[in-house]
Write a structure and sequence with these properties.
With 115 residues, the protein is mainly β. It has no helices and 11 strands. 31% of the residues are buried.
Length: 115
């Protein structure tokens, strides 16, 4: 079992920045593939950014050039730096940890971007 705790959500005006963090309880954090997802009202949950155990990164097209995902294996943490935020980035953001068929989700953190 991996417990994930997210922090850093909040309210920001368009063009602003927020940094989300997710801390995992598992000591072997480095072997996990980590990702950030988001779900806006009435929409399906979608991948925002992911970083696997080998450090390979992928981003949704909608956030490329604005968001940066990173991980610190020594601190069991994955972060998402979000710059140039847009109202359409408003959603609940979820941290995900995966290892083969296993997947665990955080409780989610709200990000609201006003125009």
């Amino acid at each position: 079992q991996v417990q994930l705790v997210e922090s850093g959500g909040g309210w920001v005006q368009a063009g602003g920045s927020l940094r989300l963090s997710c801390t995992a309880s598992r000591s072997s954090f480095s072997i996990l593939d980590m990702g950030w997802y988001r779900q806006a009202p009435g929409k399906q949950r979608e991948l925002v950014a992911a970083i696997d155990s080998g450090g390979r990164i992928e981003y949704a097209d909608s956030v490329k050039g604005r968001f940066t995902i990173s991980r610190d294996n020594a601190k069991n943490t994955v972060s998402l730096q979000m710059n140039s935020l847009k109202p359409e980035d408003t959603a609940v953001y979820y941290c995900n940890a995966a290892l083969r068929s296993y997947s665990s989700w955080g409780q989610g953190t709200q990000v609201t971007v006003s125009s």
